[in-house]
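Morning. Coffee machine broken again, so started the prediction first thing and wrote up yesterday's gels while waiting. Chain of 268 residues, entered below exactly as on the submission form.
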Amino acid sequence: MVNIAVRAARAAGNIIVRNMDRIDRLTIASKKNNDFVSEVDHQAESAIIDILRQSYPDHGFFAEESGKQDENADYQWIIDPLDGTTNFLHGFPQFAVSIALKHKARLEAAVIYDPFSQELFTAARGEGAQLNEKRIRVSGHTGLKGALLSTGFPYTDQSYLDTYLETMKALMAPAAGIRRPGSAALDLAWMAAGRTDGFWEFNLNTWDIAAGALIVREAGGIVTDFNGSDGYLESGDIIAASPKVFPEMLKIIESCVRGSDYAARQSA
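Came back before lunch.
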């Protein structure tokens, strides 16, 4: 299943790369505030679904642009055909194809493909994570002091901006730095490869994080929501970190979010 997903991701990546020199001629629409979609997103998603459906006609799909298809199927492919569309539309080379497979409630396989750098991150449950077919592990960094973290800023819904900034301020003090490249899928893949020590973000979509979450876990990292539980695919609130960095991150983020308007809205 990973091999079929890789084939689909590479097909989508080829579509994305072919369009990089004609961005000014693409048809672009706004789904909501600061959330854009182009014809490339749609073409890449169609290519992915076509390839997966040929091999697995009984599987369901949950894709960013086309929504849910056969949602009662035991196997469901979770697809983001172009994570980092805003980056792509500006020629900023940080975007990726993200594909995950969920069997009932459990993630089983994941592929994240950066078509610009041609880096391919893969994972299968219980079999570890790889980058271009070489095993990867999360960093061995201890604690937040000197750690390099990544994040994503609120961009469509800024109603929780103050709560987010509280977490950033609290994490910035001990950390060596915080980066915001612009693709949650690659943020998670890079963390799994040890390039950063932790990642957090609010209010993401399932397709943004499903593949990355499995890759991080198979690389030895910890992934939870802001309560330290497994509800991140539903809430979109995610913390991912190496084991010796995670406890401090969770404690700080829990403290900042607890009692906030954002927490009250999420529990409503």
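The two ends are 38 Å apart (CA to CA). Going to sketch it on the whiteboard this afternoon.
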